[in-house]
Amino acid sequence: MWGIIATWSMSLDSIKNVSQKLSFNETAADMVVSAVKQIEDFPFYKSVGYGGLPNEEQEVELDASYMDGDTLSIGAIGAVKDFANPVLIAKSLSQRKVNNFLVGTGAEKYASINGFQRKNMLTKRAKAFYEKRIKQEAEEIKPYAGHDTVGMVCLDAMGSMSSATSTSGLFMKKAGRVGDSPIPGSGFYVDSQVGGASATGLGEDIMKGCLSYEIVRLMKEGKSPQIACDQAVFQLDKQLRERQLVAGDISVVAMNKKGGWGCATNIKDFSFVIATAANPKPVVYVANESDGHTKIEPASSKWLQEYFATRGMQANDCLKG
Ligand code: ASP
After folding, report:
1. Which of 14, 68, 53, 24 minimizes the C-alpha distance to 188?
2. Residue whose CA is at the smallest distance from ligand 1 atom 7
3. Does residue 147 have its Cβ closer than 6 Å to ligand 1?
4. Ligand 1 centre and the CA of 25: distance in Å?
5. Can you give the pLDDT at residue 319?
6. Which of 149, 165, 276, 294 is the catalytic position?
7. Which residue in 17, 11, 69 sits closest to 40, CA to CA?
8. Residue 100: what pLDDT?
9. Are 161 and 45 in contact (CB under 8 A)?
């Protein structure tokens, strides 16, 4: 059995590429990083890698993580500028005995010494979004509509699991702000003997529930990935509403060691992508909350057509400069 699950429909192309390789016994460790790297390289996603939206000082600061579910090794970086592939730096850090989580200039120094590709990650298009936004009245910082951290959990045919995340975080965040995505147990967690989970949404609230670890903990107790996701997300959502009146956007995906999967969300139309040995053709699903559970449906062809048409339009805009 192999399987891979990823947040947001933007993962579709990269999951297509790696799922074929997973069926030929490529490792979860390599495939999850390869899939996230492809998304980092694609310039038209506004919240991952190249093309990600900047912080309030117009600088693109990136967070990423990698976890190996066999050894429980973790590598992560936070608030890193000017490197093409944060996920590769995170994976490299996971292979060290100590100094696994580096931020800011320290992480950049590590990346530079170790030969990772430098790149100005601010595109003309991201700059245009920034300029438009600063003309608007100052608002409270919140995830812009369609915020999309990529988070993936992968199981390979040998039974090993890995996870990875990558994001530019919240548009107009403070310089140095780090969300849940590189925080072990919050944005991601994976244990090959149990399963893994990854989150996207308002990092400040996701961290309050150590959400990805909580889902893996529930799976370890014997819960299915779907029940674990629903329980963890809706309990956290309820607690946040009771204690701070409002809960931020929270969405998760999870997979267990048998390739069973689940997803939960407190937002409208959260999309995710899944491919498994049983159903190797990647499918985009759309999830919505329904009475304390998550209703999951395959994305309709109209939904997918609109998604790809918009992406094509964005590509054209960008090429025009
Ligand atoms: N969780 C990310 C963060 O807070 C943002 C997102 O997933 O959209 O940085």
Report:
1. 68
2. 200
3. yes
4. 32
5. 46
6. 149
7. 11
8. 98
9. no
What is the mean pLDDT of each successive set of 10 residues along the chain, which is 321 residues long?
97 96 97 98 92 94 98 98 98 98 98 98 94 74 68 98 97 95 98 98 97 98 98 98 96 98 96 97 97 95 87 57 41
| 149 among known catalytic residues | yes
CB of 169 sitting under 6 A from ligand 1: yes
pTM over 0.90: yes
Take residue 243 and report the two structure tokens written for it. Answer: 């204690």
Q: Is 168 in the pocket of ligand 1 (CB under 6 A)?
A: no
**Range list of β-strands (E), the chain:** 3-7, 62-68, 74-80, 101-103, 150-155, 161-167, 188-191, 195-201, 250-256, 261-265, 270-276, 283-290, 293-298
Residue nearest to atom 9 of ligand 1 (CA): 169
Pocket test residue of 149, 166, 211, 212 for ligand 1, highest count of atoms within 8 A of CB: 149
> Which one of 2.40.30.30, 3.60.20.30, 1.20.81.30, 3.40.50.2020 gives the CATH number of domain 3-320?
3.60.20.30
- Per-residue confidence (pLDDT) for residue 135, from 0 to 100: 81
Closest ligand 1 atom, CA of 203?
Answer: 4
Checking DSSP bridges between strand 261-265 and strand 270-276, what pairing results, if any? unpaired
Rounded to the nearest angstrom, the distance between the alpha carbon of 151 and the centre of ligand 1 is 10
Residues β-bridged to residue 298: 285
Domain boundaries defined on the chain: 3-320
